[in-house]
Write a structure and sequence with these properties.
With 102 residues, the protein is mainly α. It has one domain. Helix content is 78%, strand content 0%. It has four helices and no strands. α3 runs antiparallel to α4.
């Protein structure tokens, strides 16, 4: 059982590093979304906006030291996963030559 946990932890770390390595692609995706040449799903846009606001604004559990850090960490992890999947969709759309509408 411990091996499975270790593999899951290393794959989670790999996911974050993969997004950092592909940061140029992520910024191109954001720029193309802003310019209108790529259509990111509305749900993804709202989740990114709400998640970023939740982490940055002090209206959540930040007044409780450990709980505030844990919930912000979970939200950041979910935002990274969402950005990774959206970046993969962007690369797939660029390769296919589409506008990204799904």
């Amino acid at each position: 059982m411990a091996r499975v946990t270790q593999i899951r932890k290393s794959s989670n770390i790999h996911t974050g590093w993969q997004l950092i390595k592909n940061r140029k692609t992520m910024w191109c995706m954001i720029k193309d979304t802003w310019n209108g040449s790529y259509h990111m799903s509305g749900l993804s846009k709202w989740l990114l906006l709400i998640g970023s606001m939740y982490v940055l604004l002090p209206f959540d559990f930040d007044w409780i030291p450990v709980l505030g850090w844990i919930d912000d960490g979970i939200i950041i992890y979910l935002l990274i996963k969402l950005l990774q999947k959206e970046t993969q969709r962007y690369v797939r759309a660029k390769v296919m030559g589409r506008k990204g509408e799904y």
